[in-house]
């Protein structure tokens, strides 16, 4: 069964069509990455799929239409890492990550020992234990980006929507974070829908890719099918060389 089914997804912002009749299916346990040039509509599509924006068409998570689900049900099903989320600046890292457990806390109740343990576990997995007591506005951008991912993972949802989850990370942490998500996918059958700009990295982790341009799907398939010199020249207006790599195509931009 598909974990995410998107049909005819259309999003208008300020009376402009930003996402235009997008169809997309992600199987349970699959990793699909959406790529495309700046302004293609990737973030907008992801936010709509996450139920954060009004849209036309249908979005189903595990068969259930997202617009018919209650907030708590949604948060148990899907966790999102958005670009630059708004955070209370004085909040401590641990308390922020613990917010990921909110859907499991009974009304007027408190987090259980299992909730605290879940937050500690993801902090450790992301090398964040030493930051647990630090304020969110007093850590680096890359550290904060890992904290956002930690909160999403603490949520324990089966579907993870990641909007540029590694844009602020150094190459080591980038690999560490993506490896962790991939390991969780293998261990817990997590389904991943991500957007990414680094095409080589995107191709290394995705089972399938979708190339979005002008709000439309212009190519979809395996990384080898999507990351071609012709596709990238046509939609990014760049000359690239594609070099076969061990885990997918290596994409190198070349001059003139
Ligand atoms: N709230 C808004 N109101 C009007 N237009 C918007 C709004 N948010 C985004 N847009 C426009 O929608 C288009 C798609 O934006 P979106 O952020 O989805 O693109 P993207 O593919 O994620 O881009 P990037 O790679 O730069 O992050 C852009 O032209 C953008 O200017």
TrEMBL record:
User: Which key words are in the record?
Assistant: ATP-binding, Nucleotide-binding, Translocase, Transport
Q: What is this protein called?
A: ABC transporter
The record's section on Pfam families has: ABC_tran
| Classification via CDD domains | ABC_Iron-Siderophores_B12_Hemin
InterPro entries listed in its UniProt record: AAA+_ATPase (IPR003593), ABC_transporter-like_ATP-bd (IPR003439), ABC_transporter-like_CS (IPR017871), P-loop_NTPase (IPR027417)
Q: Where is the ABC transporter domain?
A: 4-239
The molecular function terms in GO held by this entry are: ATP binding; ATP hydrolysis activity
Q: Does the keyword ATP-binding apply?
A: yes
- Please report the organism this UniProt entry assigns to the protein: Actinoplanes utahensis
């Amino acid at each position: 069964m598909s974990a995410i089914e998107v049909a005819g997804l259309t999003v208008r912002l300020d009376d402009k069509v930003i996402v235009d009749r997008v169809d997309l299916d992600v199987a349970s346990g699959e990793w699909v990455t959406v790529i495309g040039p700046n302004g293609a509509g990737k973030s907008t599509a992801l936010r709509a799929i996450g139920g954060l924006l009004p849209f036309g068409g249908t979005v189903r998570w595990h068969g259930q239409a997202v617009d018919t689900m209650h907030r708590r049900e949604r948060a148990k099903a899907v966790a999102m890492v958005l670009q630059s989320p708004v955070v209370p600046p004085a909040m401590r890292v641990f308390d922020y990550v613990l917010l990921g457990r909110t859907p499991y806390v009974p009304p007027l109740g408190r987090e259980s020992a299992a909730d605290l343990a879940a937050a500690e576990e993801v902090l450790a997995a992301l090398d964040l234990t030493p930051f647990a007591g630090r304020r969110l506005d007093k850590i680096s951008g890359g550290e904060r980006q890992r904290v956002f991912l930690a909160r999403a993972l603490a949520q324990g949802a089966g579907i993870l929507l990641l909007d540029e989850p590694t844009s602020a990370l150094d190459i080591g942490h980038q690999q560490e974070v993506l490896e962790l998500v991939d390991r969780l996918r293998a261990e817990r059958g997590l389904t991943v829908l991500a957007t990414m700009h680094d095409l080589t990295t995107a191709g290394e982790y995705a089972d399938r890719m979708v190339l979005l341009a002008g709000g439309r799907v212009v190519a979809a398939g395996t990384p080898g099918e999507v990351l071609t010199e012709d596709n990238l020249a046509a939609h990014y207006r760049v000359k690239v060389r594609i070099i076969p790599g061990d885990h997918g195509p290596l994409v190198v931009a070349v001059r003139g």
